């Protein structure tokens, strides 16, 4: 009995993405290394994403604090606000929200850029000029996304906690020293490490899906738009799946 | 006996050096669509050969097989004395530096300036060049195509004809021995197209290249080709000079000259 078309399409996509990932591992660590292009991509993917990630992180911390405060007051636990926000931001909200913002900005931009290069034969032009486009375009972008997202998450967490500190000070008074002492007292090594490690996987997923969608773009300009769009959708779903897996693994390892 | 062997060896060497491209019994299909079926071609050093055929006849597939963007089903392609099916990825990349490819769409890197477009192959393959030498080489090819003033412009700021010239300049920058032209005048007005045809001929003579020109533009073919090969039904249907083919009475050949 043949599979329904949607299932077949899903399996085709999953198979294609798996082969593409396999190609990354088979080619990505062999010379020639595209160091200059990798650094350029780190600048574009990391540094240029900083304003957006910083802004969303700041608002996230501020809003989270303002939303949590009434509930904690009703339980008489207002003093626990810095600790609660700290744990929520560092363990879950910071990595996941930053990764989703990153997927929206970087996933779509990689998908659209490589998609338009594909349909205008620029990738073929690179290949016929004796340059391996997979190494030059894909490996550099995936590595840059993998390396830059954890850095962005750390910065976003810091800005988010600062937003939360300002949020507390809107209706109350707390010194910065006391606020951060309460935050770090509530956090342990087991909170930081799994949250930090999973961001590498999130970054890898965003870079890989963006490149896969762009590299396999077809059907002209319509295909470019579709590549950009599906890069965001698929990488966002993958972020949640990876997050779920990370929680299960940390639970098994007793790090929760 | 020894003398005969030497003569045979010499003639083999001569054959290899004279023919820069030899295609034998090339087959390529996409599903049930047999695009190339027993296609044969020889391109001699310094010669310009045009492959003439209708749209969808497999002309672009042919040159994509030559450059290794597509893998033929069967048959052999020998470029500059080397069978491409036997080459490793690294060897193929090396060979590609001796083959220029002018895309129908130009395929200029639109995130780079004209200078960066031209420097890209130099930075990757002629890595020992100093910045000054690289700049000199870029300006030399740009001057040859008459567009030295566009060096710091972006491709999007250029007209179709100018973009074609820049793409040709990028093709010439590594001093290739063979240039493959994919529909070089398609999408251009007749005057610009004529200018590009003249430029192809001039650059071929200046850089001493051999060229395979894929086209259905008869004025371009007439201006650039020393010999024409007609690609019909996936094979080399007829061949000869422009004048010889124009006198051909076969209806399939004649339709191109009417």
Could you please describe the fold and organization of this structure?
- The complex is a heterodimer of chains A (256) and B (258).
- Chain A has helices spanning 5-27, 35-45, 50-74, 81-119, 122-128, 133-171, 176-186, 189-215, 220-252.
- Chain A is an all-alpha fold and 256 residues long.
- Chain A has one domain (34-252).
- In chain A, helix 4 (81-119) runs antiparallel to helix 6.
- The model of chain A has no long low-confidence stretch (mean pLDDT 93).
- Chain B has a single domain (20-254), classed as P-loop containing nucleotide triphosphate hydrolases (Rossmann fold, 3-Layer(aba) Sandwich).
- Helices cover 41% and strands 25% of the residues of chain B.
- Chain B has helices at 2-18, 59-67, 89-96, 114-125, 131-144, 160-172, 190-207, 218-224, 242-246, 251-254, and strands at residues 19-30, 33-44, 48-52, 74-79, 82-83, 99-102, 178-182, 210-215, 227-232, 235-240.
- A 6-stranded mixed β-sheet of chain B has the order 6-7-8-3-9-10, sandwiched between helices. In chain B, strands 2-1-4-5 form a 4-stranded antiparallel β-sheet.
- In chain B, helix 5 packs across helix 6, helix 6 runs parallel beside helix 7 (190-207) and helix 7 (190-207) packs parallel to helix 8.
- The chains are: A mainly alpha (256), B alpha/beta (258).
- Chains A and B meet through helix 4 and helix 5 of A and helix 3 and helix 4 of B.
